[in-house]
Design the sequence.
């Protein structure tokens, strides 16, 4: 406990952030140096690493997400993923040239296997045991960030808006921070606004449906559309696209969040049954669906066109997807987050390093305007080595 008090009193901390996203293909790990906290925070990225999982691990996670596995598999996966998250943390620490004892904290989002904000009661579950991470690394670990927000009436997502406001808020320029992962989410940060003025929500599918359609078309030989090449070859099925754009989720007002429960395997199977086109045509249509749903979601949330959209996540590498998004938002600059000095692949891992730091000093980490929570709360649970 004395060591914890010493860490809490430090002005500068080295923190690892860990996350596995909706694609469930590995762990993103970022090491950052953080000075201060809250509005006085200064963040310096030090290293980034992605630990890819074996196919059998990914399939096991997807089976859990799609309700094809039992409680024993869930229990074992929680411990197994904890070990993999710890391995990723140690790898990024080594890449930066540090030793584990030189790191102050780990913030781990874990792997979401179920997110039911509309359930009775609302609930969510992220696995990757924090105690396993703490014991294998010897580093204080903070995890399970979503449940505190849900306990006070929030959706438990999105959780990155606080970080977006701290790192990217600007006195004179409004900005939209867009993450295109399996699901796409946005944070709209108006110029010079306090944190209460931001808006954030999941827009709908990002890469999830595209990736699944590529896997289906190639018999598992490919798991994503590199550079959007398949979509670029295909022809959009306008009738199918119109049905997709009428999905009820897109019409809901924020706060809102979604995941595989809404846009997973069952949804893709239904879409595939309705499609009368080639695999590349289907991929083109799903890519257009992602781009248009993002643009429409942003357009519904703002009163006038935004000038800047900064993109992170795996979708930033899909050239065709970004081209379609730019066409859907002709008056907006759509660029990689790298233009603001942050590796777009590292953005979410960095976010959970920052959130862990805020938790450690006793600051709230949720944004009620984004999640719908009744009040700000400190997020996460602490596991000691």
Sequence:
């Amino acid at each position: 406990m004395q060591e914890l008090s010493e860490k809490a009193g430090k002005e500068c901390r080295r923190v690892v952030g860990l996350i596995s996203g909706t694609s469930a293909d590995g762990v993103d790990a970022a090491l950052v140096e953080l000075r201060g906290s809250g509005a006085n925070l200064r963040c310096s990225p030090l290293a980034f690493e992605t630990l890819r999982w074996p196919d059998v691990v990914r399939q096991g996670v997807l089976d859990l997400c799609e309700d094809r596995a039992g409680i024993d598999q869930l229990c074992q996966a929680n411990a197994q993923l904890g070990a993999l998250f710890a391995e990723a943390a140690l790898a990024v620490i080594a890449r930066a040239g540090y030793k584990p004892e030189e790191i102050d904290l780990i913030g781990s989002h874990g792997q979401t296997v179920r997110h039911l904000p509309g359930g009775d009661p609302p609930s969510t579950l992220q696995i990757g045991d924090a105690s396993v991470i703490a014991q294998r690394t010897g580093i204080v670990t903070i995890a399970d960030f979503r449940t505190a927000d849900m306990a006070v009436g929030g959706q438990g997502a999105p959780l990155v808006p606080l970080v977006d406001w701290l790192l990217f808020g600007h006195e004179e320029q409004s900005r939209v921070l867009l993450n295109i992962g399996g699901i796409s989410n946005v944070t709209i940060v108006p110029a010079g606004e306090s944190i209460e003025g931001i808006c954030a929500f999941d827009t709908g599918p990002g890469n999830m449906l595209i990736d699944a359609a590529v896997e289906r078309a190639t018999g598992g030989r490919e798991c994503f559309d590199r550079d959007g090449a398949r979509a670029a070859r295909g022809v959009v099925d306008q009738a199918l696209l119109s049905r997709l754009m009428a999905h009820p989720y897109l019409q809901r007002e924020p706060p809102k969040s979604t995941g595989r429960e809404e846009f997973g395997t069952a949804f893709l199977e239904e879409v595939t049954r309705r499609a009368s086109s080639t695999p590349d045509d289907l991929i083109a249509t799903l890519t257009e669906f992602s781009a248009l749903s993002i643009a429409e979601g942003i357009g519904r949330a703002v009163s006038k066109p935004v000038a800047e959209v900064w993109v992170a996540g795996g979708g930033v590498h899909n050239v065709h997807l970004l081209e379609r998004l730019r066409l859907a938002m002709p008056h907006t600059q759509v660029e990689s987050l790298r233009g603001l000095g942050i590796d777009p692949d590292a953005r979410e891992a960095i976010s959970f390093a920052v959130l862990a730091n805020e938790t450690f000093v006793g600051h709230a980490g949720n944004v009620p305007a984004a999640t719908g929570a009744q009040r700000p709360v400190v997020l996460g649970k602490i596991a000691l080595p």
User: Anything to note?
Assistant: The first strand starts at residue 12 and ends at 20. The chain has two domains: 2-156+344-383, 161-340. The domain at 2-156+344-383 is CATH 3.30.420.40 (Nucleotidyltransferase; domain 5).
